[in-house]
Amino acid sequence: MEIRDSSEHTKTFSVQRLKANLAAFSTALLLMPLQIFIHNRFEGTALALLDLALILLAALIALSIVERLRCGGMSGLSAVYCIIMLIFYNGDDPYLYALLRASQTLMGVAVAYLVNVLLLPYPSRKQKKELQKNECV
Questions:
Q1: Which of 1, 71, 107, 115 is most buried (most C-beta within 10 Å)?
Q2: DSSP label at 118?
Q3: Nearest Cα to 101, choosing from 16, 3, 26?
Q4: Among the residues of the chain, which ranges form H helices?
């Protein structure tokens, strides 16, 4: 079992993660105005039920988009990211909040790419076997 991902896996994973986050980011941004409307118009049980329905709808949309993008391994992440954006939105500028969340994800992906691909590249098992096969004995 390898502890560290290969450089190729990091590249693929980074692209999938960015697609999944873009899907969640877009879904949450499109639904935030509806959420603001709900919070301004309803109270109590009606607010809680409508908020829950909106969050479930957002998660379902994000999951569907990510599955269509063929990033199935990231679908759960996308749904969670979308839910976090809608639940923890505190009433400030929703677009600024969404941009902050997206920039945090981009920084994480960039650091992983920098370390695993550029600074300390690590071959996959297949690449290791090819290197061993071609070694001079």
A1: 71
A2: I
A3: 26
A4: 7-41, 44-68, 75-87, 94-113, 125-133
Structure tokens at 33: 């105005």
Dist CA 56 CA 49 (whole Å): 11
- 3-class SS of residue 2: coil
Give the relative orientation of helices 75-87 and 94-113 as an angle to the nearest 10 degrees: 140
Q: Are the C-beta atoms of residues 19 and 69 closer than 8 Å to each other?
A: yes
* Contact in structure between 115 and 122 (CB atoms under 8 Å): no
Could you report the per-residue pLDDT of 108-137, keeping only the tens digit for each?
A: 878 877 887 778 777 666 666 665 666 655
Give this prediction's pTM: 0.68
Residue type, position 40, single letter = N
